[in-house]
Amino acid sequence: MPVAFGAILGGMTTLIGTPPNLIVAGFRAEYSSQGFGMFSFTPVGFSVAFVGVVFLALIGWRLVPVRQRMDAANFDTGRYLIEVKVVEGGKAEGMTIWHLEKAIDDSEGQLLGMVRDGEKVITPHWNKSLKAGDLLMLEAEPDKLSQLLSSLGLRLLENVRPDSKKEPPSLGKIHSVTLESERVPHSSLPVQPMYTPTSAPAASLSSRWFDRRITVSSERTLRGFQVGMRDPSTQASTDIEKNSANRDIVLVEMVVLPNAKIIMHTAQELELRTRYGLNLLAISRQGKHSVQRLRRTKISAGDVILMQGEPERLASFASQFGCVPLAERTIRVPSNKKAVQASTIMLFAILGAALGLMPAALSFAGGVVALMALKIMPLRHLYESIDWSIVVLLAALIPVAGAMSTTGTADLVANGMLQYVAQGHTLVALGIILILSMSLSDFMNNAATAAVMCPVALSAAGQLGVNPDAFLMAVAVGASCAFLTPIGHQNNTLILGPGGFRFGDYWKLGLPMEILVFVIAMFMLPIIWPL
C-alpha cells in the first residue's frame, strides 16, 4: 500500500505523470494562450509528494493493516492431488476429455494433465478419447475423492493411507499428498516453503508431471502432518520449486489489472485449456482463496490467479490479457536488442514535451509512430495497450463538461458553493474545490473527476475575480489523490489481491494521507499560484 500511494504521489509532479494533469492543462489552454507546461505542476506536486513519501516512510507504513495469524487449531486439510489410471473396461475408457472434465467439474475437481505411452500432456485436447493405461493427474476435495473415482471407474496407482507409517514411495506415484500447517490468512496465494516430515526425506515429484520438490522452511513450524505433498492451491505455507532438470511446466501467480480482458469472464468462457494450453488452479480475492468451481468463477480486477502451463504460453497469456506475474517471476522479459532504440525514442518524446518544442500529445504520438516505423512495437500491441474504456469515458465526459459551462450548470454549482459554503472567502472556496475533487476521485475515475470539476473551478474563480490557475491546480491535486478506496485509482486496485487487503483497509492509511495532502496543498497553492 505505501508503494501504491507513493506511485500516486509521484505522478503529481509533471504534466504527463497522471491523466488529471493533462485534462487540467487542456482546460487551461481554453481560456489562456497556452496550457500548463511539463513542469508547471512540479512546485506544488513535488512538495506534496515529498512530505507524503516522508510520512509513508516514517509513520504511514505502521498504519497498514496487518493480519493476525489464526489459532493453531485452525487447520485446512486442503485438496488432494491424485494420480489415477484408466482401467480396461472401465467407465472412463473411451470417454472424451470434454466429458471427463464435465464429470470432474461436477465433483468440484480439476484435471491437471495426463500421460499416454510415456508422453506428458498437460492440456489434452477436448475431443481426445481416453484409453486403457492412460495416467491422469486430478485435483479434488477429500470428501469428493471417493465419489469421483467410483463414478469414473478409475484406479489409484498406489493407495497409501494418511496414517501409514511406511516410508512413502516417490510422490510421482503416491495417490494423495497432504501436509497440514497453520493457515496464513489474507495473503497472496501461498508460495512459501513448507516443512518436510522426516518420514519422507527424499520426496519429490515424478519428472512426468511438474519436476518440483518440497523444500524446508526455517520460518514456519509444522503443526501436524499427513504423508505426502500439499496441493499448492490451498491456504497453507507451501512452496513448489522447479527442479533444474526440467523447466517446461511452471506455476505462476498473476495479478489481474483493472483493464484486463479476462475481467467478468470465467475460465470456461475463455477456454484456457483448449485455446491456450493453460490451467487455472486457484483465485485469491481480497485475501480469500478459492479453489472450487474455478471454471465457473468470474474473474475480477485485483484478483490473484494461480496459473499452470509452459512459460512461453504463460508469457503470451499475461501480455495478451493484461495480467502481471508476481513474486519470483517465472515469466521473464526477454532481452531485446532494440531496447536502446526504444529508450532513446522515449527520451526524445519526453524532452520534446518538456522543452516546449511541441505539445505533449503530439510529442508522444510521434514517439509511438517511430516505435512502429522501426518495428520495435507491433501495431497489435499498440491497439491492445489502449484502455478503450477510458477513451470512451473521456469522450463522453468532455462534452458533458463543455455543456456544464455553456448551459450555466457550472456557474450554478459554483454560485451555490460560494454563497452557502464559502460565503465569498477565496481560501475557503479553494479548499472546497480541493476536497470535492478528492472525494469524487475516491469513487470515480480520476480523469473523469478532473473533467467534471474543472468547469466548476473556473466558474468559481471567475465569480471571485481571482487567478483561476490556483483553482485548476487544486483540481489536479485533488483528482490525483485517491487514497480511501481500492476503486479510486488503478494502483489501489492492483495491490488489492496481492496485498490481501479488504475494501475497508484503505481508509486507515488513506485518510491521514488525504488530510496531509490537503494541508500541504493549501499551504503551497497560494504561494506558487497567487490568488
UniProtKB/TrEMBL annotation:
Q: Which GO terms describe its biological process?
A: potassium ion transport
Q: Name one GO cellular component term.
A: plasma membrane
The organism's superkingdom is given as: Bacteria
Span-the-membrane segments of this chain are 6-27, 39-61, 345-374, 386-405, 417-436, 470-488, 509-529
Gene3D superfamilies, per database record:
Regulator of K+ conductance, C-terminal domain
| RCK C-terminal domain residues | 67-154, 238-324
Q: Which UniProt keywords apply?
A: Membrane, Repeat, Transmembrane, Transmembrane helix, Transport
Membrane topology reported for the UniProt record: Multi-pass membrane protein
- Protein's UniProt keywords contain Transmembrane: yes
Question: What is the protein's given name?
Answer: SLC13 family permease
